[in-house]
Specification:
heterodimer, A: alpha/beta, Rossmann fold, 2 domains, 6-stranded mixed β-sheet, 4-stranded antiparallel β-sheet, B: two-stranded antiparallel ribbon
Chain lengths: 240, 295
């Protein structure tokens, strides 16, 4: 088993404000790795740093055997590292179909876009029905499917999913979680940051717990789910 | 009433409207993709007009044939300015509001420098040339060949840009970047490449607009400012960064100007343009065709 992504002593943040203070973690190839922790712990900051939206001030990031932390974000997409951002960030004035096409502008994916879009429509028939509609007119759940579909259009080796179920109805959140194993089966590695701790640990092969910009614990999803420290701190008594 | 329905007036409105649409298109591309407020836009139109004038005067080259060359000159000027001044702003200045403010001042400097260089080189007095000014009569409309040519070129270029934005992956990337820069980076768009492309295309279109204008109007080093104003009025009416909205607003402004001047008097032209502008903004602050943009 090899690591597709490894983050080594990474420090990053916004301007003068440091958010990550020496992050260390590894993600296995074709597995679901989870990043859990409370709001403000640094989950999104790490995701944005790995995707190249924020520079890391210290440390290094390796992806698929190469150092990528000096590359601009589009070059990371080119290598197959693709983020589905928090808040979805679909292009609301473009149609669903055009949104999906933007996902395949990278050179590696461009020529395959027609076959990829068919696969995405198979995965999310809802998007097929709405392909001519403007993305801004979709519901939150549909926009999340669109953001995920747009990510898949880039032919990812690894998807960075940043809070994919935030603000969604439980039924739709469940649907999003159901898609992930299907993606892993296709050989895509997943790095998932989520606030729905219970479902996340259920699905994750391995998970890291982040607090104040540092990893404080890591283990398999199964072990962490049954760890009283985790359940008390993040889940409350009702679900433990 | 007969006057209002006359094809002559319709033709004039179409010529003016398509020119306005073209004038504004270049500005809209530069603002939409980079949030650079190019108040030197009218001066690029002036550069295009002078290029057309000199090519014609010195070598007899028709501005219509010389359009690619004129576009290339303005695109080259754009490239120089981009790498000399604006790349640094785009890469190192945050947040975007500060880029807008800085760009306004920088382009003001560019405007003053370009105007004065042209005035020093070719004097400040107005110039004109006669080309394609034979009159044709068609469907009861008398029109000079240069106006017909300007209309045809403008409409062709506007359609080509809309097609390019809709069909090519570059066009798709430009549309995506106009809407949301962060999302554009995330999906793998090479943002700086698309910005250079938009910057050069925007400048090239301004040059072409200037060449077309020079065929029918007097040119001078200080002719640019009214076009800068028209361009801003049009893109704000159409919704900032909304390319198709801007084209529609340009045509609309041309029609309103021609028809209201006929109904009232040419003295009301400026009052009219600004009145329409203020009126629309009071009722629809996002512009006539503006959409709410998440950025």
């Amino acid at each position: 088993m090899s690591d597709i992504l490894s983050v080594h002593k990474v420090e990053s943040g916004y301007g003068e404000v440091g958010v990550l203070h020496g992050m260390d973690l590894q993600c296995r190839t074709s597995k679901v790795t989870a990043l859990v922790g409370s709001n403000g712990a640094g989950k999104s900051t790490l995701m944005r740093t790995i995707a190249g939206l924020l520079p890391n001030t210290k440390g290094s990031i390796h992806f698929d055997g190469e150092v990528i932390d000096k590359l601009p974000s589009h070059a990371r997409v080119e290598k197959g590292l693709i983020m589905v951002p928090e808040g979805r960030l679909v292009f609301s004035d473009l149609t669903v179909a055009d949104n999906l096409r933007t996902g395949s502008v990278n050179v590696r994916a461009r020529e395959h876009w027609q076959s990829t879009i068919t696969e995405v429509y198979d995965l999310f028939p809802r998007l097929y029905e709405r392909q001519r509609q403007l993305a801004g007119s979709l519901s939150g759940g549909e926009q999340q499917m669109l953001a995920l579909g747009r990510g898949l259009m880039g032919l990812p080796k690894m998807l960075l999913l940043d809070e994919p179920t935030l603000g969604l109805a439980p039924a739709i959140a469940k649907q999003i979680f159901k898609v992930m194993p299907a993606l892993v089966e296709r050989g895509i590695s997943i790095f998932l940051a989520e606030q729905d701790l219970y479902r996340t640990l259920e699905i994750a092969d391995y998970a890291f717990v982040v607090e104040n910009g540092k990893i404080i614990m890591h283990d398999t999803g199964k072990v962490l789910k049954n760890d009283p420290k985790i359940t008390n701190a993040y889940l409350g008594d009702s679900k433990s | 009433m007969d006057l209002l329905l006359s094809p002559q007036l319709l033709f004039s409105a179409l010529v003016l409207g398509s020119t306005y649409a073209l004038v504004a298109l270049g500005l809209n591309l530069v603002y939409g993709t980079m949030r650079l407020l190019n108040i030197a836009h009218g001066d690029l139109i002036m550069v295009g007009a002078y290029a057309a004038f000199w090519f014609f005067t010195l070598s007899g080259l028709s501005p219509i044939i010389g359009l690619p060359l004129i576009a290339l000159i303005c695109a080259g000027l754009g490239l120089i300015l981009y790498f000399a001044i604006f790349r640094h702003q785009l890469e190192n200045v945050h947040p975007v509001e500060r880029i807008e403010a800085n760009s306004l001042l920088l382009f003001f400097a560019v405007s003053v420098i370009v105007q004065n260089v042209v005035a020093l080189s070719f004097s400040g007095s107005p110039r004109a040339y006669r080309h394609l000014d034979e009159v044709y009569h068609l469907l009861g409309v008398s029109m000079t060949a240069n106006r017909i040519a300007a209309l045809v070129v403008a409409v062709t270029l506007l359609s080509a840009v809309v097609l390019f934005l809709n069909r090519s992956h570059y066009g798709l990337s430009i549309s995506a970047l106009i809407q949301n820069k962060t999302a554009a980076k995330i999906v793998g768009i090479n943002v700086s490449k698309i910005q250079i492309l938009s910057f050069t295309i925007g400048f090239a279109i301004a040059g072409v607009a200037g060449a077309l204008i020079s065929m029918t109007e007097q040119i001078s080093p200080f002719m640019g400012f009214p076009f800068t104003i028209v361009a801003f009025v049009v893109i704000i009416l159409g919704g900032l960064g909304n390319i198709k909205g801007g084209i529609a607003a340009g045509l609309l402004l041309g029609f309103v100007e021609i028809y209201v001047v006929v109904l009232t008097s040419a003295n009301f032209r400026s009052i009219l343009i600004y009145g329409l502008f203020v009126g629309v903004l009071l009722l629809r602050p996002q512009g006539l065709f503006g959409k709410t943009r998440a950025s």
